[in-house]
Amino acid sequence: MLKIENLSVSYGDTQVIWDVDIEVKEGEIVTLLGPNGAGKTTLMKTICGLVPAKSGKITFLGDNLLKINPWDRPKKGVVLIPEGRKLFGKMTVEENLLIAAWKEEGKKETLEWIYETLPRLAERRKQLAGTMSGGEQQMCAIARGIMAQPKLLMLDEPSLGLAPLIVEQVFDLIQKLQERGITVFFVEQFVEQSLKIASRGYLLEGGRIALHEDSQSMLDNDYVRQVYLGIA
User: Fold this and answer.
1) Rounded distance, CA 162 to CA 21, Å?
2) Which one, of 173, 182, 80, 162, lies nearest residue 118 by Cα?
3) Rounded distance, CA 78 to CA 98, Å?
4) What is the mean pLDDT of residues 136-159?
5) How far, in Å, CA of 195 to CA of 17, rounded?
6) Using an 8 Å Cβ cutoff, are 135 and 158 in contact?
7) 123 and 182 belong to one structural domain
8) Do 204 and 91 share a structural domain?
9) Both 72 and 154 in a single domain?
10) Residues 40-85: pLDDT tens digits?
11) Strand locations in the chain, DSSP E?
């Protein structure tokens, strides 16, 4: 579905990603792990067109994404839920959701699924998004992405700053997205939890892919266990 080949990205003269190769197959949950400053967010933004590529290729369902305008990529099925939620705080929950529903077909059914899956949002549909708790805002941000009816949903640090109970709910929702037929590619700080729901993982360090294995192999990897899981 998504294939990244020899991708390099720079901010001016400063290169932050070197020759990255990543593949996400249809129906998968794939996680991108790594320390702060590794280039994870930059990679996500490059896929969406928010940051230009220096070189390389990004293919999605046979289309070269680098030749498609950023604002047209969601219509191809590529949607990013950025770090920090980025909700319209003075709009209601439902207004935030509907603003992402660019396609009329399936809009009503998608909204009903969201309210059924996330009843808290249904209860607060007329509430201003900016007055909700951090966890509720994060769920609203994810739901807004779902309203775009993506084929590939990318999430950047969806659990950042959330209470443990809400983190658990976020991971549960990601699995429900897969059951709905949405392919998921996400950046996360919680390594163990991420690998438990993902089929495969990539480890990005210093702008380069340091490791790529199936999730169980990564969980069993001595380096991952010592550096990222704190297990000697």
Assistant:
1) 31
2) 173
3) 18
4) 96
5) 23
6) no
7) no
8) no
9) yes
10) 999 999 999 999 999 999 999 999 999 999 999 999 999 999 988 7
11) 2-11, 14-24, 29-33, 55-60, 63-64, 78-81, 152-156, 183-187, 200-205, 208-214
Percentages (nearest 5) of helix, strand, coil residues in the chain: 40, 25, 35
Exposed/middle/buried for residue 71 (C-beta within 10 Å: 0-12, 13-18, 19+): exposed
- pTM score of the predicted model: 0.94
Residues 39 and 52 in one domain: yes
How many angstroms separate the CA atoms of 194 and 134, rounded?
20
- Domain hosting 89: range is 84-149
CB 20 within 8 A of CB 204: yes
Relative to beta strand 63-64, strand 152-156 is unpaired
- C-alpha span between 184 and 78 (Å, rounded): 10
Give yes or no: residues 71 and 162 share one domain.
Answer: yes
- Domain containing residue 20: CATH number: 3.40.50.300
